């Protein structure tokens, strides 16, 4: 076990040397990978080599524990670069988009929702937090470790959820998420939600969800199909949670500030919807149709309204901690909160 720990430490150092010292995300890559490494336990000791550990971090659509013996998964640490290359090809399908996500992420839900509306064929690769970064860096040539990342069938790679929506609108004009006569207004709302609501809703949700591994582990595993990655994140759940709190500066004070910011955004959206309601009984944020502004608001607000997303494995509403439920009930009671639930009911397929 000690020798294996040393091999993993050497591998992680090589990965950091290759891909850069820290993740582009606020959570430093070294913190989360260190948390996984330090929590490495006999329950996942069946990995044949540290290279298998790297493959598990990179690609969730196959269990490398079961990789054939002749594959690079069974070779030495010195083969890690070729192993990562091999792994990036697993599970890809011609003529399909590839969406790299953290399953529970609201920014990933924004991209996922737009993909579902577009009718595009896509394969989602959902990772637990921390285990996503290598896939993102590989797909983007080291440009980012963030999610979502969309790899298109023609070889383009996009990251940042708004860029993905704009790409889908260009590729699938029937979407009509950015009506020409409303485009500036739609993009203005989107910028506001991306920069203000998104980060605040994330801090708020993580503050409550990381309080107990009984809650955090199902959230980490949401949408993930790899038993390997689930074992890794479960073994390291407490330490990954600590790394997330450190990376996003989550404390009691910052969580309360985030809740206040979300309430302010909801107040502004409620005022807009109530004003629009004078001549439209079911108003949208821009004009009389569902646009990217409504989609972005609903997706980024889902952590504080706890709308029903199609991501499998998320905890049920009645399974949330009571302090979290207090916030959810307060947000749902607003006109903006009702708008989120309405958009999910009418425009989000299960």
Q: What structural category characterises the helix and strand content?
A: mainly alpha
| Low-confidence runs | 19-34, 39-92
* Outline type: globular
Q: Summarize model confidence as the mean pLDDT.
A: 80
Strand order within the widest beta sheet:
2-1-3-4
Task: Name the helicity range.
Answer: 55-70%
Radius of gyration, rounded?
21 Å
Distance between the termini: 44 Å
Order of helices and strands: HHHHEHEHEEHHHHHHHHH
Please report the number of helical segments: 15
What report would you give on this structure?
- This protein has 350 residues and is mainly alpha-helical.
- 56% of the residues lie in helices and 5% in strands.
- It has helices spanning 2-19, 29-38, 50-58, 80-88, 106-118, 133-139, 161-171, 183-209, 213-221, 227-235, 237-247, 252-276, 292-305, 322-332, 335-347, and strands spanning 97-102, 122-127, 149-151, 157-159.
- The protein has a four-stranded mixed β-sheet with strand order 2-1-3-4, with helices on both faces.
- α3 runs parallel beside α4, α5 (106-118) crosses α13 (292-305) and α12 packs across α15.
Features:
15 helices; globular; 350 residues; four-stranded mixed β-sheet; mainly alpha; single chain
């Amino acid at each position: 076990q000690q020798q294996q720990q040393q091999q993993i430490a050497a591998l992680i150092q090589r990965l950091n040397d290759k891909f850069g010292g820290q993740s582009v995300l606020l959570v430093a890559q070294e913190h989360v990978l260190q948390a996984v490494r330090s929590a490495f336990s006999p329950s996942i000791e069946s990995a044949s080599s540290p290279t298998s550990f790297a493959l598990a971090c990179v690609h969730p659509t196959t269990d490398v524990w079961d990789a054939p013996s002749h594959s690079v998964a069974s070779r030495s640490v010195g083969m890690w670069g070729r192993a990562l290359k091999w792994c990036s090809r697993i599970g890809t399908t011609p003529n399909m988009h590839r969406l790299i996500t953290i399953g529970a992420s609201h920014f990933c839900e924004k991209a996922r929702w737009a993909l579902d509306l577009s009718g595009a064929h896509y394969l989602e690769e959902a990772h637990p937090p921390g285990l996503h970064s290598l896939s993102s860096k590989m797909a983007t040539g080291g440009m980012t470790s963030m999610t979502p990342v969309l790899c298109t069938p023609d070889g383009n790679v996009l990251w940042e959820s708004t860029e993905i929506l704009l790409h889908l609108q260009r590729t699938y004009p029937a979407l009509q998420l950015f009506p020409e006569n409303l485009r500036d207004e739609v993009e203005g709302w989107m910028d506001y939600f991306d920069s203000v609501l998104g980060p605040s809703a994330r801090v708020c949700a993580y503050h409550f969800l990381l309080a107990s591994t009984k809650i955090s582990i199902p959230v980490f595993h949401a949408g993930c199909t790899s038993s390997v990655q689930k074992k890794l994140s479960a073994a390291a759940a407490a330490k990954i949670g600590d790394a997330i709190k450190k990376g996003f500066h989550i404390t009691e004070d910052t969580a309360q500030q985030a809740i206040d910011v979300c309430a302010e955004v909801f107040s502004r959206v409620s005022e807009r919807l109530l004003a629009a309601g004078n001549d439209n009984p079911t108003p949208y944020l821009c004009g009389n149709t569902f646009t990217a502004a409504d989609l972005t608001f609903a997706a980024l607000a889902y952590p504080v309204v706890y709308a029903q997303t199609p991501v499998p494995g998320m905890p049920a509403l009645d399974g949330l901690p009571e302090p979290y439920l207090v916030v959810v009930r307060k947000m749902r009671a607003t006109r903006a909160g009702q708008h989120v639930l309405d958009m999910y009911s009418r425009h989000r397929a299960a």
